[in-house]
Amino acid sequence: MSRPGTIVNIAGTTPVDDPEYRYKMPVVYGKVEGRGNGIKTVIPNIAEVALSLNRTPAEVCKYFGTEIGAQTSYSEKDDRAVVNGQHTDPQLQDMMHKYIEKYVICPNCRLPETEYKIRNGCIYHRCAACGATEMLDMSHKLTTFILAQHKKSKKDKSKRDKKKEKTEDGEKKKKKSKKDKKDKTDSDEDKKKKKKKSKKDKKSKSSDKSLTQDDSDGLADDMDNLSVGSEAGVDDAGALALAIEGTMKFMKEDPKASVKEIVEVVTNQQMASALKTHDRLQIFMGAAITENCFKGKEIQKFAPIFEALVQDNPIMQRHLIGAAEAYCAEKPKTFPVMLKQFFDEDVLDEEVIIRWAYDGRTEYTLDCVDEDTRATLRAEAEPVVNWLQEEDSSDSDSD
Question: What is the rounded CA–CA span in Å between residue 318 and residue 312?
């Protein structure tokens, strides 16, 4: 029997004996409290176990209850997990292996690098290692708990976002008020300076000499040099092309690169090319997405990278839609497909897509997408927008 504090390989029902295996977890152990009908098993290291599996302690605790038919409770405040009844450490660890098999390990590559993606009331595994997406066994009682937790966290996130927006609005008003006062002060000072300058100009005007022909030619040469210098700089389009080329080269040389490594390369390319942060989305889209992206499931494959670049930020999501508009400008019928796939992979939120649909042209729309093209893309996306609104309406009714 393993002692508390022992670290083992993360494994499902099939053991992993590789000593070099990098996925580790602490063994589960319990402490029995009470006696008679009030006997219960407390799991002191539930938080450490859940963290190693990238799951919540409440979910792990709930699984024990669904597996043995016992009542469970988890207090986030005290970090205390309780399973009614007396259960030995080997029993707990055996249940943990079954939980890992069903809810943590990727069915395709067998690595514990999955996260949940929920669509239309179904839970999917999405693997960051191999990109596979597989649906869970929805008949198990734990899935009801996972769906309820997902819904709760979504509502909590919405409340936090609204609170943040109010705070930001308040700060903007304060800054605007300070700026208005400063501008007024600056304006008064400017008027005084202009009066002084006007008097000075009148005094010096009579003593000024007119430009000779040589002076005039020299000034013209200086202006020409300034013009040439501004045109000689590398433009954003050229810098973007170089950044895309650099990213493509890296991905070709290292096809098994991790999400973190690719994001780091894209970021380095963006910074080296002096482009803006949101240009990372254009860089990666240009490097990774090909004309056959929908047949080859490239968006599904690279979704974890897009998600890492977007970071669940609504502003970055709008920039991603802008990049998709530019990418699909010549083939508008592919745009709604791309939009839907980004939504299915949880890269884009429905609220962001609906807001884009009704905002018209904004600062997120790239210059290469003219108004007619954008109108065409919006028309093509109409079925997706309508579907999202119907989904949103049905969710509100069910609440």
Answer: 11
